[in-house]
Amino acid sequence: MYEVLTISVSQRANHLATQFYNCQEEALPNSNPKDSVNPSIYLNPIIDRISKTVSYEPRALLWEAKNGFGSLGQYQYIPESQDYHFNQNTQNPTDANIISTQPKVERSEYQQALDLNPYELPPLTVENTKYWSDYAKLIFGPKSFNSLQNWYHKVDSPNKPDYQNLDQCDFSTFEQGVQEFEVCKDDFFDTNLRYMLEQADTLQGINLITDLDSGWGGFSSQLLQELRDELPKSTFFTFGFNEPDMFSGLRQSNNITRNKIKSTLQIRQESDLFFPLFADVQNLSNWQIGGQNCRLLDTITSVISQRNEEQRRPMDHLVQCLSGDDQLRNVITSMYDTSTNYDYSYHPRVKQWEKTSHKLEDYHEFAHCLINRNGSDEILTDEKTEEEAKKPNKFNDIRDLFTTKFRPSDTISEEYTETELKSVKMTTSEKSRDVFKNWNMYISRAFKLDEDREELKDETSNLATAYETGYYDDEDSGDDDV
Q: How far is CA 190 from the centre of its chain?
C-alpha cells in the first residue's frame, strides 16, 4: 500500500494538516482511475462488515500545547474539562464535587452545522477559525492526539504556548523545545506512534510539518532524530514554517533568527527533502496560512497517492529530482505556483548576498521538478522547446510530473481557491547560498557564547559552498572581531 504518515507539530502546523485532510475528504467520492487519489495512502480505512460501510481516519499524529485542541477531545468532540471528586458512599457524578480544570471551549458553529446539515454550512472567517478543530471535517482517532506536558495554549498568541499557564514565559527558544521533548518522548513512541505504524501495511515515509522560529523547532529537531533511528528506511519530507525576520526585511527579536538557524540546520540533516515555507504572519491568520500552503502540500502529496499508475511516483523519486546525488542540497530553494505567481518558500525573501560584478544576474539552477495539475496529458509549461514537446513519451523527463486536479475543500479561503491551480515548479538553486552566507555571518557575530558555534559556522559554510557555482570574491573576513 505504501502509506504515508503525517506528523504536525504546533498550532500553525495543525491548521495546514487540517486543510490537507479536508481536501482528502473532498476527494473521497471521486474514483476516476485517471484523475483521483487512493485515499488509503493518507487515510486509514475502517471497515464495518455488519453495515458494509467504510469510514476514514487521518494517518496523522498531532502535537499541541495543552488546551490547543479546542473543542476536540481524544475520545469525543468535547474534551472533559472537569475532575469529579466522589464522596465515599457514592460513585454517582451528580453527587460529586466538581472542580473545573480548564475553561471549556465551545464547539464552533461550523462543527455543529456539520452534524445537523452538512449542506448548509456557515462561512468561515478569521474570527471563527481560532482553532483548527473549528473546521476539521474528518474525525481523528484517539491515538492521533499528543500534547506537551508543561506548556499551555494561548488564544491571543497561538504559536507560542505559555509555561504552566502562568503568563510569565513563552515557548520561544530552541532549548525549551529540546527539554520538553525529553519529557514527552517515551509515551509517544511506545503508544501512539507504535499504533499508527501497525495500521500501515508498508510505510513509505513521513511528512513532518512544524514551526522553526520558536520552541517547536527544537522539539521537532529532536523528534525527527528519534524517528530516523526508529524508521531508518523511511523517506522524510519536512515542511517548516519561517516567520519574517531580519534577513527578510522585518525587525524581530534575536530569538527568532537563532531558533530558525538551529532548527533548520538540525532538521535538514535528518530530512530527505526540506521545504522552508514562508508564514506571512503580518497579514494572515493561521487558518489563512494553512489554506494558502495547502495548495503546495496537496500538490506534492497527490503525486505520491494518485491512482494513475503511469503518473504516480514514490517519495524517493522527488528526492532524486530535487537533490540528486548531493544530499547537502536537500533544501528546496523555490516553490513557485505558476497560477498565482506566488512562491511559498522563505528563501527568495532573504536579502541578496553581494556577488562579484562578473557573475550573471540570474541564480544558477541545480535541479528542478515541475508538477502539472491539469489532470490530463497536456504539459503546462512554456519552457520546453518545440523539439522537446514532440517527444513520443512525456515521461522521458523524470522532472516533469503529472497529477490529479486540485479539488480544494470549502474550508479554504476563497482567495486561495478562486484561481485554478495548474502547476507548481520547485527548484534547488544558487539563491540558497544567500541564506547560508547570511546565517554564517550572523553566527559569527551573535553566537559568541554558544558551545556549538564553530560547528554551526562550519555547517553553514559547507551548505553555502554546496549551493554556489563559478567563482566568488565576496568572502567575509573579520566577523569575529565585530
A: 24
The residue count of the chain comes to 482
Taking the C-alpha atoms of residue 335 and residue 338, their distance in angstroms, rounded to an integer, is: 10
pLDDT tens string 320-330: 999 877 889 99
* Lowest mean pLDDT, pick from 89-98, 406-415, 432-441: 89-98
Q: Which residue pairs, CB below 8 angstroms and at least 24 apart, start in 125-130?
A: 126/285, 126/287, 126/288, 129/285, 129/286, 129/287, 130/70, 130/155, 130/158
Q: Say how far apart CA 35 and CA 306 lie, in whole Å.
A: 7
- Looking at residue 93, its pLDDT comes to 55
Kindly report whether the global pTM for this prediction surpasses the value 0.85: yes
3 beta partners: 203
d(CA 174, CA 179): 9
Supply the mean pLDDT for the chain.
88
pLDDT of residue 326: 84
Would you give the distance in Å from CA 165 to the centre of its chain? 26
How far apart CA 399 and CA 396 sit, in angstroms, is: 9
Percent of the chain beyond pLDDT 70? 84
* Confidence at residue 393, expressed as pLDDT on a 0 to 100 scale: 41
Amino acid 344 reads: Y
- b/e per residue, 163-189, with b = 16+ CB within 10 A? bebeeeebbbbbebbbebbeebeeebe
What grid cell was written down for 345?
518558500
Is residue 189 within 8 Å of residue 226, measured between CB atoms? Answer: yes
3-class secondary structure for the chain?
Answer: CCEEEEEEECHHHHHHHHHHHHHHHHCCCCCCCCCCECHHHCEEEEEECCCCEEEEEECEEEEEEECCCCCCCCCCCCCCCEEEECCCCCCCHHHCEEEECCCCCCCCHHHHHHHHCCCCCCCCCCCCCCCHHHCCCCCCCHHHEEEEEEEECCCCCCCCCEECCCCCCECCCHHHHHHHHHHHHHHHHHHHHHHHHHCCCCEEEEEEEEECCCHHHHHHHHHHHHHHHHCCCCEEEEEEEECCCCCCCCCCCHHHHHHHHHHHHHHHHHCCEEEEEECCCCCCCHHHHHHHHHHHHHHHHHHHHECCCCCCCCHHHHHHHHCCCCHHHCECCEEEECCCCEECECHHHCCCCCCCCCCCCCCCEEEEEEEECCCCCCCCCCCCCHHHHCCCCHHHCCCEEECCCCCCCCCCCHHHCCCCCCEEEEEEECHHHHHHHHHHHHHHHHCCCCCCHHHHHHHHHHHHHHCCCCCCCCCCCCHHHC
